[in-house]
């Protein structure tokens, strides 16, 4: 073989190998790239990802976008707290505060606020990473709700740029039901409590939430220009919503919020499920956890068509007493009947963890894995994380982002972390992408379309490069 023929063969061989065995060639490519994280990132950026099933809108927005919105709203920045605050009645800022718009030209202020709103450059000291993370949300809470459509558009664009095709976003909660809950109180006879809330006007609250969600979706599509360009990459991303029940609320409010969420999901096709949110280690969350699971159990029986995913096991040793680690995932599965589990980090500390894994595999309960979030909030990373145990046991998993803005991450970065830290194969990453659609709560016809589209994307991604 002369040198010219050899060079031609060398050029042709990767394409011939890919054509003959695309799976094997992709595995070889991933193995080769694992030693070069930037190149692996570029590979994973292009890879089809299916959906992100665990994504809180308020935490998904990057700090830079909150600062832009704060400038539009005329908000002020409280430098002592590192937070956004409302101006005085005359429109000015209080003594010691400055206009948030100044961050557009003052890099020191801008960087200070970005670090305050997120985990960027955070170093634990008098404040723990856990507390800084959860404390960030109150710091940008003054931004007006009218930006939600634009924020969702930002999130959707980012998903499209990463070859995602589906988002389930936690973007609406049950706070409007709380005044009625306080008036009615908690009746532990749940049938009677439900009757009292409905008689008191809960469905008027549900209608209010229905209008708010529909307006949010219209604003998202308008911000993306989907009426004019319905086939743009961002407009092709299917978006559905999950309802947030605030577990750190009093029990009467939790019941009313959850009931409102189930009833809203029954009438609004955009809302595909219900979840419980807020720190799982909070005082009320820990004290009332069993009651919360009983509430979900009751509502699932009352509204059997409504889907449920629960944050469960977002805990680590030392964060709560040892006995607090033993039952959260199990009760979410056995009592509440959750179809998916968010986080599931304390698996090894649950009572009969091996039996729990077998149960989750048998029931096909997917775990939404949030690696960066679990590292930043809980300090759980590497061989301390249960991802390998879920995979070994055959429990379905999917990689998700949780709060990508606060964590300063995105889905491609999460996949990169998974591929490097756990040496996941291409087949495993591909299966996770498929799981993200198989276990999505989207309506069946749309799910079938999304799954077909995902396979077409994979065929295009795995297609041998053209040889000219």
Task: Describe it.
The chain is of the alpha/beta class. It folds into two domains: 64-129, no CATH class; 145-457, TIM Barrel, CATH 3.20.20. It is 54% helix and 12% strand. The chain contains 23 helices and eleven strands. The strands form three sheets. A four-stranded parallel β-sheet has the order 1-5-6-7. Helix 1 (3-20) packs across helix 2, helix 8 crosses helix 11 (202-224) and helix 13 (251-267) packs parallel to helix 15 (289-302). The radius of gyration is 23 Å and the shape is globular. The chain starts with a helix and ends in a 6-residue tail after the last helix. Residues 8-13 have low confidence and may be disordered.
Overall 3D geometry? Answer: globular
Q: Work out the strand percent.
A: 5-15%
Instruction: Provide the low-confidence segments as ranges.
Output: 8-13
Number of beta strands: 11
Supply the number of structural domains: 2
Placed side by side, the strands forming the largest sheet appear as 1-5-6-7
Largest sheet: 4 strands, parallel
The fourth-level CATH homologous superfamily of the largest domain is Metal-dependent hydrolases
Q: Tell me the CATH topology of the largest domain.
A: TIM Barrel
CATH architecture of the largest domain: Alpha-Beta Barrel
Topology, pairings included?
Layout: H1 3-20, H2 22-33, H3 37-46, E1 50-56, H4 57-60, H5 63-73, E2 76-78, E3 83-85, E4 97-99, H6 107-117, H7 129-139, H8 148-161, E5 164-173, H9 178-184, H10 190-199, H11 202-224, H12 233-236, E6 238-246, H13 251-267, E7 271-277, H14 283-287, H15 289-302, E8 309-312, H16 328-334, E9 340-343, H17 353-363, E10 366-369, H18 371-378, H19 387-393, E11 397-399, H20 404-407, H21 411-421, H22 426-438, H23 444-462
Parallel strand pairs: 1-5, 5-6, 6-7, 8-9, 9-10, 10-11
Antiparallel strand pairs: 2-3, 2-4
Helix pairs in contact: 1-2, 3-21, 8-11, 9-13, 11-13, 13-15, 22-23
């Amino acid at each position: 073989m002369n040198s010219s023929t050899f060079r031609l063969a060398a050029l042709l061989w990767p394409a011939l190998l890919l054509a003959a065995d695309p799976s094997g060639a992709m595995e070889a490519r991933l193995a080769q790239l694992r030693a070069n994280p930037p190149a692996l990132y570029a590979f994973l950026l292009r890879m089809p990802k299916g959906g992100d099933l665990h994504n809180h809108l308020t935490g998904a927005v990057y700090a830079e976008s909150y600062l832009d919105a704060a400038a539009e709203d005329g908000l002020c920045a409280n430098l002592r707290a590192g937070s956004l605050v409302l101006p005085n009645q005359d429109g000015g800022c209080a003594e010691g505060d400055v206009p948030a718009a100044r961050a557009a030209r003052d890099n020191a202020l801008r960087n200070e606020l970005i670090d305050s709103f997120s985990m960027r450059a955070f170093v634990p000291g008098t404040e723990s990473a856990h507390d800084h993370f959860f404390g960030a949300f109150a710091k940008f809470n003054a931004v007006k709700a009218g930006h939600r459509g634009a924020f969702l558009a930002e999130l959707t664009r980012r998903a499209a740029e990463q070859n995602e095709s589906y988002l389930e976003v936690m973007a609406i909660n049950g706070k409007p039901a709380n005044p009625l809950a306080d008036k009615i109180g908690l009746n532990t006879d749940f049938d009677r409590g439900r009757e009292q809330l409905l008689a008191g006007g809960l469905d008027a609250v549900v209608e209010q939430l229905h209008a708010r969600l529909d307006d949010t979706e219209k604003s998202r599509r308008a911000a993306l220009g989907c009426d004019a360009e319905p086939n743009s990459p961002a407009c092709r991303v299917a978006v559905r919503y999950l309802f947030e029940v605030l577990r750190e609320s009093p029990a009467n409010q939790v019941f009313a919020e959850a009931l409102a969420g189930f009833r809203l999901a029954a009438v609004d096709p955009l809302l595909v499920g219900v979840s419980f949110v807020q720190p799982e280690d909070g005082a009320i969350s820990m004290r009332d956890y069993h009651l919360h699971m009983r509430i979900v159990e009751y509502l699932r029986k009352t509204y059997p068509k409504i889907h449920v995913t629960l944050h469960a096991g977002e805990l680590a040793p030392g964060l709560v007493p040892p006995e607090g680690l033993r039952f959260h995932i199990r009760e979410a599965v056995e009592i509440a009947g959750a179809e998916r589990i968010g986080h599931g980090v304390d698996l090894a500390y649950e009572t009969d963890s091996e039996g729990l894994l077998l149960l989750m595999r048998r029931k096909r309960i997917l775990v939404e894995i949030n690696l960066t979030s679990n590292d930043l909030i809980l300090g759980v990373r590497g061989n301390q994380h249960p991802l390998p145990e879920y995979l070994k046991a055959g429990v379905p998993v999917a990689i998700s982002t949780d709060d990508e803005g606060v964590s300063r991450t995105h889905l491609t970065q999460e996949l990169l972390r998974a591929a490097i830290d756990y040496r996941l194969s291409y087949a495993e990453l591909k299966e996770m992408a498929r799981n993200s659609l198989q276990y999505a709560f989207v309506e069946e016809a749309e799910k079938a379309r999304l799954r077909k589209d995902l396979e077409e994307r994979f065929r295009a991604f795995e297609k041998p490069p053209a040889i000219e």
